[in-house]
Amino acid sequence: MTLHPTHNLSVEELDRQSVFHPFTALAQHNESGPRIMVSGSGVRLKDRAGREYIDALAGLWCVNIGYGRTEIAEAVDRQLRELPYYHSFASMGTEPAAHVADRLKRMLPGEMGRVFFGLSGSDANDTQVKLVWYYNNLLGRPRKKKIIARKRAYHGVTVAAASLTGLPVLHNAFDLPIDRILHTVTPHHYWNAEPGMSEEDFARHCAAELDALIEREGPDTVAAFIAEPVMGAGGVIVPPKGYFQEIQKVLKKHDVLMIADEVICGFGRLGRMFGCEVFGIEPDMVTVAKGITSGYVPLSASVVSEKMWQVLMEESRTLGVFGHGYTYTAHPVSCAAAMANLDILEGEKLADRAAETGAYMQTLLRETFEGQPAIGEVRGIGLIAAVELVADPAARTPFDPALKVAGRVAARALDNGLITRALPNGDSLAFSPPLVISRADVEACVERLAASIAGVRDELIRDGVR
Ligand code: PMP
């Protein structure tokens, strides 16, 4: 075990004593300590003990181009030597920021107006919330401020973004959500549709629920609706057929803005560059992060349509400066990394590759798991998928949450050299590998997941659970 030069302690021990870990059971971590990763190449990671893993989650759904691409390191190195930092307040700017903003506008569907840079999906969604409020204040509609998200949505953890998120663990004990943020139904056909309801009928049902919520609240008080094209961290939920068409009819009727959170879906994961293209979403605002740099360095963006931009620009004349921005907004090093990353994504046609390998992965997952004991649903599109475990597939009875079935499968998978993730609510395991994954590695992931599920089932049977 390597010792830290100044302490007589291992890195694991230093971590255990000093790092406050996000989304971690704090007391448990204090006892068991961390797993420290040291290197990565393609879809593979190595930890300090020299164990190798296939990273079927691409870090946190973000390492789209895979690990170890030296083009990004070189672009970052060049920018650090040329100009490591300058800001974009008060009309200042840098070359990489101008290039990325222009490129994003050209890549995104619809007519986008301006790109506001941040550093995380969370801060970008907080910016969207503030922009929605600012916009309606400028338009003289001070009451039109409420934003509707969906239960089980994931939009981040900062105060407004965590409020948009529809997961209790982000609200409980944090005094969230804040007011003016509401949640409507999760478009999950498997769990939420009435028996026998078609996908199309369920989509209409979800839209009717949204319509009813807006009517109850008063359309003059509802400003925006935010949605991930495919809900990611809340369960990998692919919307039912026709969902966004039905939802957008309701939004148009009540003059409510559509915010597309493309933080996971953007940059190729669904087999097109953006999720909006897959589902025919016509957003007024788009949030991107993760895949814009493949996670190599932090960068996010809140993009507004040309139509919204015209209002923001013209109507704000009387207000003076736009009072929002971060020290690191449009950071030149992040933007240089983004340009190199987008060169790889576009040059190697990784969205097309995700469509092809994704189709293979979806088929293989369904062939392997559907109809097997304890498998409820296999779902996904492109290179994002989830396998949901249930106690009784015929009756659709979930496992007792106290059994932590998915968590146990994920832990076993780790021992089997596979990084997957147990998602909150229910017992789903997620796949969202780098877009460069090969068919052989998809097969290895599926085999390792199958072995891990079989291992946990054996344990449950042994314990008399089923
Ligand atoms: N939106 C979505 C759809 C996400 O998946 C995430 C992160 N998983 C976020 C926002 C928040 O991004 P970050 O963790 O970079 O703040």
UniProtKB/TrEMBL annotation:
Name the SUPFAM superfamilies on file: PLP-dependent transferases (SSF53383)
What keywords would UniProt list here? Aminotransferase, Pyridoxal phosphate, Transferase
Q: Which cofactor does it need?
A: pyridoxal 5'-phosphate
**What GO molecular functions are on record for this protein?**
pyridoxal phosphate binding; transaminase activity
Family membership, please give it: Belongs to the class-III pyridoxal-phosphate-dependent aminotransferase family.
**Can you say what this protein is called?**
L-2,4-diaminobutyrate transaminase
From what organism does this protein derive? Tepidamorphus gemmatus
